[in-house]
Model the fold of this input.
Amino acid sequence: MDTDMVYNLSVSDGTNVWNLYSGLTSNYPNITGLNVSTNVSVGNYNLQYTPEKSVSKLIYEAALPTYGEVQYYINGTSTLATATLRSMNDVNNLGGTETSKTIDNITIHRNDFYSINLSENVKSIPNRFGYYMQNLVSADISSTKIVNISDGFLSRAYNFVNLSVIPNTVSNIGNSFMDSCYNFNQLFNVPDSVTTIGDSFMVLCNNFNLPLNVPNSVTTIGNYFMYLCYNFNQSLKLPNNLSVIESYFLSYCNNFNQPINIPNSVTTIGKGFMNSCLIFNQPFILPDSVETIGAYFFYRCIDFNQNIVIPSSVSAVGTDFMHNCNSMSSTVMINCNAESFANSNNTLAVYNNSVVAYTNGIKISGINAQNFVNRFPNRTSLPYRKLILA
Done:
């Protein structure tokens, strides 16, 4: 018997019924008190005694550990029913891509799930847990003992709105966590037990617009972090032990305009950093720890017009650096070698020769400003570029 299992059995009458369930082993809890002529109250369930299903059988089934319950719409109607997760097989059936799921011997279409509540007996969840359950609105995993939130957790649960606390046993959040949960906008915390966040964290959570704190325990964040979170415009705290900001971080967060601090531990910024953060216009500092900046850094940050320093620690900058920063007329200080920048016509260039970045020009200063201007001469044809030594 697994000592971690929780047995939830409550009966009350006054009659000792030990002799009625001789099929049970002594490992099960000693249960007394039952009137066989009435309903049997077992945990949250009322089980009707019948000769066909003996009291001992009812007690035996109820004494087995349960793994939670689900609420679901009956055959696509508006009527809700409840099914018990009686085994890990039931829990595992909540994952995968199958259209129909079998829970407690009941076949439920994935679009009929309304809520999922997992118990403390659950120690793992399958990949694509809750995947494409378009009418699922709530999931409670707070009582579980899971260590890993597997890939595809609640992915494409378009109408999902309510996630319980993530348990502090979790150390890894897999790829595509809540990918495309369009309507999710609930304050939640990543616990400080988490060390790894996979690719595509909260991608396309269009309506999410609440502060998010990534704890210092996290050392790895994957690609596409909060990619396409169009409405996100709240504070975001990054962990102070992060060494790599992977590709497309906050890319296409069109309405994001909050200060963001890059930790001094970061050495690499992947491509597409804040690509198309259209209205972002906050003071921004690249720490001296940064050595590599990928392509499309600040690409199409149309409103950005702040002084920025490229530190001497940087040894490589990808193509399309600050391409289409149309409002930029502030100063870019180049303290790294000009040759660190990929030779691209799109570096600090724009598509339209009537925008501020071209009509007023972008100021270039720093110890390598002259070399930079020589490497990237002005352009009077598409893409347009006008650089001014400050």
